[in-house]
Amino acid sequence: MRFLICLSLTVTSCLAQVPAWNQATVSGWWQKYPTPETWGAAGDELRSQLAGTYEQREAGALTDSGFQSWLRHWQWVGLGMAAGDWLKNDADREVFVALGKDARAAHLFAAKISPANQSRKALNILLRLAREQPDDLREYAALGVALALVFDKPFPKNWPHHQVSRKLVPIGDDDVVARFRFYVEANRKNKLAQDISKLEFDEVKFVVDSLVSLDELRYGQSNKSSRVNYTNFDQAFPAIQYDEARVGSGRQQYNWPEKNGAYTLQNIERLGGICTDQAYYAATLGKARGIPTLYFHGQGTGGGHAWFGFLQRNGKWNLDCGRYVSQNYPVGDAYDPQTWRVLKDALLLTLARNVSHDEKYAAARTGLAWAAANAGGEREPQILWDTLTVMPELAETWEALGDWLDQHEPDAGVRREFYEAWVKQFSANRDWVDLKVDGQKRLLALLKQTGDPSAAQLQRDIMMYNRKKRFDLGISAGASVLFEKLEGKDWQGARVEYERVVRTFNQQGGGNLYYQIVRPYVQYCLEEKQAAQARQGLKYARGRMRLPPDSILAEEFERLDKAIQSAASAGGE
Fold this sequence. Notes:
It is a single chain. This protein has 573 residues and is mainly alpha-helical. The protein folds into four domains: 2-113; 166-174 and 188-339, C8orf32 fold (Roll), CATH 3.10.620.30; 363-449, Serine Threonine Protein Phosphatase 5, Tetratricopeptide repeat (Alpha Horseshoe); 453-573, no CATH class. The chain is 58% helix and 5% strand. It contains 27 helices and six strands. The chain has helices at residues 2-7, 23-32, 36-57, 59-62, 65-82, 90-102, 104-112, 119-132, 134-139, 141-150, 176-188, 201-208, 214-221, 265-271, 275-288, 345-353, 359-373, 380-390, 395-408, 412-425, 433-449, 454-465, 471-487, 491-505, 510-527, 531-542, 552-569; strands spanning 293-300, 303-311, 317-321, 331-333, 335-336, 341-342. The strands form two sheets. The chain has a four-stranded antiparallel sheet. Helix 7 (104-112) runs parallel beside helix 10, helix 13 (214-221) crosses helix 15 and helix 22 (454-465) packs antiparallel against helix 23. It starts with a helix and ends with a helix.
């Protein structure tokens, strides 16, 4: 990158560098700066030392364990300063300093906390664990930090999913210390499928992300629960009998029936369920046994579907358990319990490829943290570029550098060169298609902004390349073109584009095609008093899409048909 190469040629500073990291130096630091009143100036000095080390070594600093440790130390001190008067309490301050000296939980907390976390509440949880379970927190640092960063905010109102009434879910025991003790004791009594103290933070947070009572989790650990074990845990999904009666002809009941009683593991085992219940059961059973699990929901050929993923004994994730039941072939969403936002494809790929165990990953995370510490400064793009050189397959760095370019780089040619490099980086592996499309979308926006005629072809390429395996991405690209036509009131052009997308994805598009293209198109036409075009559009889709009888998708088409009839009766032609 031309602009980044120039930055790398700046003259090296003579700033002081960070000292060696060891127990003596860190204990000495806390002895010299024991109170919040002293942390401000000391933090500024430490930041200058970090800057001096980086300017001397550049990318080499990011891979240095000493630089990494002092950066996390600086972040931990900053969290203490942000706590305000709270840490002026002697007892709380002593616990905070003790955690800082030990570094395991403190540095992990500093590295993993995100803007979505409620930092003061999360820190309070961690300090409480350190006060009440100091020895256990040292041994189970990742577990404690995960609980702090998951339970610092309310779970979503529709947790665990939207197809069960919250009042039927056996929620209870929300005290974080009690949950921490539960997992520690279960681990020591060999009631878990693996040693939970060995799990990384990004793994164990998918164990603790549940509100069900500890008794419910104990049931999941007992011999009374499913005979599925860790070796064949992918069979936890089909271990639950599919309840055909709930979705038979004319009897569609997608929500857990209240007559079935509480939404417990035992009742699901006894009564069976549909895919949402099978996926919830498997995910919750795994969490009870210390197995990281993900609950997925997505769209398939017949409508919605749910499945689950889990961390296998070999340390790799299986994200497809139950995914292809009933030939749905959907692409789905799972949630990051630290933020309760949909997991980005990049993070899912990180999980699937197990890169968190790669030494380069720690260096890249250090680079991102140091770049954030220099946000708005002249060094920020250089740090991000160095981070790319350390681990070019980490999508977050491309995103961060792309954001910087969009805000600060006026030369469209430089931005184009960067986005083309992004696309090339993630073109080598078909499994990276999500990340490739992210770069293509950024490139597409730039081409449109500059009036480049190649934009239209790039948009077609995205759609056609992803018309099979990742049809959701291709449909999304088609939707972008379609709604440009609609917003411009180009009704003929919109009809042509709509029919092109439906024709391209007719057999496999399913729920994605319906919810991204068919329904929005028909509804937009109705809102603009184009009932005839809406009717023709629905008819076109119905004649080409696969609509299994009694499916959610078939029901959706019926609802849309009634909306068209209602609009026509009201004079919407």
